[in-house]
Specification:
homodimer, mainly alpha, Arc Repressor Mutant, subunit A, Tetracycline Repressor, domain 2, globular, DNA-binding
DNA sequence: TGTAATGTTTACCAACCGGTCAAATTATCA
DNA sequence: TGATAATTTGACCGGTTGGTAAACATTACA
């Protein structure tokens, strides 16, 4: 009998494990490059190296595949923000959050683009995740930042917009990679880009652009 | 005789003017929401309130429509950067650039998303514009910033990454609008958002997060 | 080893895709 | 007004889309 995926309450076959892995990897490749509507099941099957009906045996619809992919990736994606530690030194924490986010933009650009595509097109598939788990996590960390500001450990600022600023500046290097490369030209497209970006952003967020005599840091 | 669009060397009819306007408006709506591949000609025709063959009478292909739209919008989009004045006060110039970009994110979010979609998906249709006019303009303004830094008027920093940071933080409010709304919740989604964002960003770029006694500014 | 569950493939479908065509309609202007 | 050019429409085309049906192959396991 053909058991639909949802009904598998028991353990998964070795084959299932392997194929689902290959499919989600291919789905990440295609969805991140073209968005949900722009991606085709045929293309994903092709990248995964299997026939379309075979792929649809593991994920019955394009939508189910996309959802499974989002579920798997979202958790990892929020890890750096979770690591944000209320007890740590504020400047150090923000610094290493920036660095971690930048590393993720460098090492997992497809994941970044997956979400960017989704949110950009109105987040029709992940609205719940945004308003639920994401908002709760951000609320929690925003409270931490607010406390730091109140205690005079960092400048008074809106914690939400601070988080937005860190997200946008770091993910920019994944989402707008083509533009960054085009503007920087051939020379600066190598590995050094991320080091330059890290140095600039850490400096920006800590000291701004004001001229200053080697701040306390 | 049916004159293809390209052959119109003479002045354009009133009808042509109106219809092309309506089509590009509809195309902006649809392309910005779904990206090139995700958009359909039928949908654009529907939004424009005309039949598909009628639309294709004015723009012979989906591609031509997209190109015309990009051409029309790109110039306007780069205006704020052009206004960047080498002779002005550096901090003031950067401040008002941020403000102008933020105003564009607020007033023309669809234009922002049009480019975001395009770049995100590898910029297959605007690679030339990025490597040509865009790069040249950025190079020019980066030189201005570098001169300011050299003269000690602002902190020493990589001018390219500074421009990227301004682009990403401001356009974030257009491109990731859904996420911003979801995180901020109902209360803060009104007009005040942009005022908060402006205040935060101007502060961030000028002073950073370091605690400071009312800087010179 | 046998057999039932799992996995894979071929052939196919209706709906939709970008785009064409010729006929019908409307605007322009001598 | 009439004829000519510009515009609009409905019917249609080949290719692609997400997804299905059923036969076939393979695996797991008693």
């Amino acid at each position: 009998m053909v058991l639909p995926r949802a009904a598998r309450t028991q353990r998964r076959t070795r084959i299932q494990e392997e194929k689902e892995e290959r499919i989600l990897e291919a789905a990440l490749e295609v969805f991140s490059a073209h968005g949900f509507r722009g991606a085709t099941v045929d293309q994903i099957a092709d990248v995964a190296g299997m026939s379309k009906p075979n792929l649809l045996y593991y994920f019955r619809t394009k939508d189910a595949m996309h959802r499974a992919l989002i579920d798997r990736v979202l958790d990892t994606w929020l890890d750096p923000l979770r690591a944000f530690d209320a007890e740590g030194n504020p400047v150090t924490e923000i610094r290493s959050y920036i660095r971690r986010k930048l590393e993720m933009a460098r090492d997992f650009p497809r994941e970044s683009r997956l979400f960017a595509n989704e949110v950009l097109q109105g987040a029709p598939h992940i609205e719940d995740e945004l308003k639920g788990p994401l908002k709760e996590l951000v609320d929690e960390k925003a409270e931490v930042i607010r406390a730091w500001a109140k205690a005079g450990k960092i400048a008074k600022c809106d914690p939400y917009h601070l988080i937005f600023a860190i997200w946008s500046t770091t993910q920019h290097y994944a989402d707008f990679d083509v533009q960054v490369r085009a503007v920087l030209g051939q020379g600066n497209s190598g590995e050094g880009r991320f080091e330059d970006a890290a140095r600039f952003l850490e400096r920006l967020f800590v000291d701004g652009l004001q001229v200053s005599e080697q701040p306390i840091s």
